C-alpha cells in the first residue's frame, strides 16, 4: 500500500512538472449580428466572365456570415519551455460562419497552422500557414481594428494577406518589431477567384517562382507614437503552364498617435498587380485615416475614412483597360463592453462610387455587397454581440 501511494505521488509530481513547462489554450471568438443594407444587386455567377451585377435590386435585411466586428473563429495554441530562454510553439486556427456553423473556407485550419521556435533574445521563427509581414506590421493602424464588416481590410492588404507554406521571422527589439517572410508557394485564396488572375495550387516542383511570395515590415511603438512600413510581393501562376508567373507588388506606410483616451491614425498603400502576360490587372493607391475615442471605461468609438484611387483596372489580360470611379467610404463603430469577454455594438458604413468595403469583381463579391447597376451609393447598418473565449 505504501509503495502504491509513493508511486502515485511521484506520478502526480511529474505531471505537475510537465504542466508547468507546457501550456495549451483553447480560444475563440463568436460574433453574430443583424444587418440592413440599403440597395444591393445580385452577384454574377462568374465574376471574371461578366463582372456586372444584375436584378433583383433592393434593400437587404439579414444576418451577415462574417459578423460585425470580428470573423468568428476557434483555435488551439500552445508553448513548451525548452530552457535557456527558448520555447517551442504551435497555433491552429479555424474560421467559421457563425450563422450556419460552416467552415468559412476549406481546409479545417484555414486561418493559421504553424509550428515554431521562440527565443527570449533572438526572436521567433514560425513555419506554416500564417499572416504576411505586411499584415502583421500594419494591422495595428486600422481605424476599426480590422473590423470584419465595414473596414476594407482585404482591399488594403491584398487577397494574399494570409499565405501557406510560409517561413517567417519576428523579432522584438524594444519598441521596434521586425518581420520578414517567404512563401514557397501559396495556394489560391477564395477571394482571389474572381480577380482574373491565373492562380495555381501552391508549390510547383521544378518552378520555384510559381506562386511564391515574400515580404518584410518594420513597426515602431513607444510613448504613444506608432509607425509602420511594409513591402509585399506575390507571383501567382497558372497550374497549366508552370514558369509563367504574374506579379503583385504592394508597399504601405502608416502612423498613429495616442494621448489619453484618443488615438489618431492614417496611412497609404501602393499596389501594382499584373497578369502573367505582363498586362496590368489593377493599379491603385489606397488612403485611410481614423480616430478612436474611449469615451468611458466600457464605451469605445471608432471612425474611419477610406479612399481608393483606381488608376487602371482590366478584367482579363486581353480586356480593355478602364479607369473606374474612385470608391470612398466612411464607417463608424460604437462598441460597449458588458464584461471583459462580451461586448455589444452598432456599426454603420456609407460608400460612394462603389460597394461597402470595396466589394466587387476584384474580391469575387465574396463579402455580399454586389452593387446594383448604375448605383452610386450604399449604406449599411449592423448591430450585434461578440463573445471572446
From TrEMBL:
Q: Name one GO cellular component term.
A: pore complex
Compartments, as annotated in UniProt: Cell outer membrane
Q: Which molecular function terms from Gene Ontology are attached? A: porin activity
The principal location of this protein is membrane
Hey, what's the signal peptide range on this chain? 1-20
Q: How does it sit in the membrane?
A: Multi-pass membrane protein
Spell out the CDD domains in the cross-references.
Answer: gram_neg_porins
Q: Enumerate the transmembrane spans.
A: none
Subunit structure as annotated in this protein's UniProt entry = Homotrimer.
The name under which this protein is listed is: Porin
Amino acid at each position: 500500500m505504501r509503495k502504491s501511494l509513493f508511486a502515485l505521488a511521484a506520478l502526480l509530481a511529474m505531471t505537475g512538472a510537465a504542466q508547468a513547462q507546457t501550456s495549451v489554450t483553447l480560444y475563440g471568438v463568436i460574433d453574430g449580428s443583424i444587418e440592413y443594407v440599403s440597395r444591393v444587386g445580385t452577384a454574377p455567377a462568374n465574376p471574371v466572365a461578366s463582372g456586372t451585377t444584375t436584378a433583383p435590386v433592393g434593400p437587404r435585411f439579414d444576418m451577415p456570415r462574417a459578423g460585425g466586428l470580428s470573423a468568428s473563429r476557434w483555435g488551439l495554441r500552445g508553448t513548451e519551455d525548452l530552457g535557456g530562454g527558448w520555447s517551442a510553439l504551435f497555433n491552429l486556427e479555424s474560421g467559421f460562419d457563425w450563422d450556419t456553423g460552416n467552415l468559412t473556407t476549406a481546409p479545417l485550419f484555414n486561418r493559421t497552422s504553424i509550428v515554431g521556435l521562440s527565443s527570449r533574445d533572438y526572436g521567433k521563427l514560425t513555419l506554416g500557414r500564417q499572416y504576411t509581414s505586411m499584415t502583421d506590421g500594419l494591422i495595428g493602424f486600422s481605424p476599426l481594428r480590422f473590423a470584419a464588416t465595414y473596414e476594407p481590410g482585404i482591399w488594403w492588404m491584398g487577397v494574399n494577406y494570409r499565405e501557406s507554406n510560409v517561413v517567417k521571422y519576428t523579432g522584438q527589439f524594444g519598441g521596434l518589431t521586425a518581420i520578414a517572410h517567404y512563401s514557397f508557394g501559396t495556394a489560391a485564396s477564395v477571394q482571389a477567384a474572381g480577380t482574373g488572375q491565373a492562380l495555381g495550387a501552391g508549390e510547383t516542383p521544378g518552378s520555384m517562382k510559381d506562386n511564391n511570395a515574400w515580404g518584410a515590415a518594420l513597426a515602431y511603438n513607444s510613448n504613444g507614437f506608432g509607425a509602420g512600413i511594409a513591402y509585399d510581393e506575390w507571383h501567382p501562376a497558372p497550374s497549366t503552364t508552370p514558369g509563367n508567373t504574374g506579379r503583385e507588388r504592394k508597399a504601405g506606410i502608416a502612423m498613429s498617435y495616442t494621448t489619453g483616451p484618443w488615438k489618431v491614425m492614417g496611412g497609404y498603400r501602393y499596389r501594382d498587380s499584373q497578369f502573367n502576360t505582363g498586362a496590368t490587372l489593377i493599379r491603385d493607391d489606397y488612403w485611410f485615416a481614423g480616430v478612436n475615442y474611449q469615451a468611458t471605461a466600457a464605451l469605445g468609438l471608432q471612425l474611419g475614412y477610406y479612399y481608393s484611387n483606381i488608376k487602371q483596372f482590366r478584367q482579363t489580360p486581353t480586356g480593355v483597360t478602364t479607369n473606374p470611379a474612385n470608391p470612398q467610404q466612411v464607417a463608424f463603430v460604437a462598441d460597449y463592453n458588458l464584461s471583459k469577454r462580451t461586448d455589444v455594438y452598432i456599426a454603420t458604413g456609407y460608400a460612394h462610387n462603389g460597394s461597402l468595403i470595396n466589394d466587387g469583381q476584384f474580391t469575387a463579391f465574396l463579402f455580399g455587397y454586389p452593387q446594383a447597376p448604375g448605383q452610386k451609393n450604399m449604406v449599411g447598418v449592423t448591430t450585434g454581440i461578440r463573445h471572446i473565449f
